[in-house]
From TrEMBL:
<protein>
    <recommendedName>
        <fullName>Phage protein</fullName>
    </recommendedName>
</protein>
Length: 67
């Protein structure tokens, strides 16, 4: 049985980044074990989402440091 993830609004963007990053890495490792292409595609989508979130986080930090 899968654990239910708490409401996403309870996470900071940094915590969501860590969660996405961990998911991506776990999926990539799972792909290496069983070579299921769907796992690789999902891992890459999670990685892209992770990097987009990192860009947003870094942009907001730069914006706050300017003001």
């Amino acid at each position: 049985m899968m654990k239910q993830i708490p409401c996403l609004k309870l996470f900071t963007k940094e915590e969501l980044y860590c969660l996405l990053n961990a998911c991506s890495e776990s999926l990539a490792l799972a792909y290496q074990e069983i070579h299921e292409c769907d796992l690789w595609h999902i891992a890459m989508e999670a990685r892209l989402a992770c990097e987009a979130l990192r860009f947003e986080i870094d942009s907001q930090k730069k914006e706050h440091s300017i003001h």
